[in-house]
Design brief:
about 130 residues, mainly beta, 1 helix, single chain, 6-stranded antiparallel β-sheet
Length: about 130
């Protein structure tokens, strides 16, 4: 599965570590579903309409346990999206943003593809999201 930091976050972390600017991570991040995965530059096709909304996630060690090894991080709890009021089509990836709408893509990852029909509820199981640092 592919996935990594966005170019936006890579620049912020480089500046933070090498002293140019302090980066303060958001206290809440927002999980977004995609039918076409973004990449490090952004893009992709985020689901929209039909009851879809990004899911707010407290940015803490319960939702995001300590990294495994040196380059991998997974979700620690279920991330549950609202019920679809009509088909969302096929989901294939997830993005982590710093805002409920628009905002900056921080991380993205492929997830197990699934077709979301009317009344379906998408639940990403613990360890269902794998974020890597490249």
């Amino acid at each position: 599965m592919a996935g990594s930091k966005s170019n936006y976050l890579e620049a912020k972390l480089l500046d933070h570590v090498l002293g140019a600017a302090v980066y303060t991570p958001p206290s809440i991040v927002y999980a977004a579903l995609y039918s076409v995965a973004p990449d490090d530059t952004g893009g992709g096709t985020e689901i929209s309409g039909n009851g879809y909304a990004r899911v707010p996630v407290n940015n803490d060690l319960i939702n995001w346990p300590l990294a495994s090894g040196t380059t991998t991080k997974v979700n620690g709890v279920y991330f549950t999206f609202p019920a679809a009021t009509a088909s969302w089509g096929t989901i294939a990836a997830i993005g982590i943003f710093d805002a409920a709408t628009s905002g900056n893509l921080l991380y993205w990852a492929d997830i197990t593809s699934a077709t979301v029909n009317t009344s379906d509820i998408v639940r990403i199981a613990p360890s269902g999201i794998t974020i890597t640092s490249d």
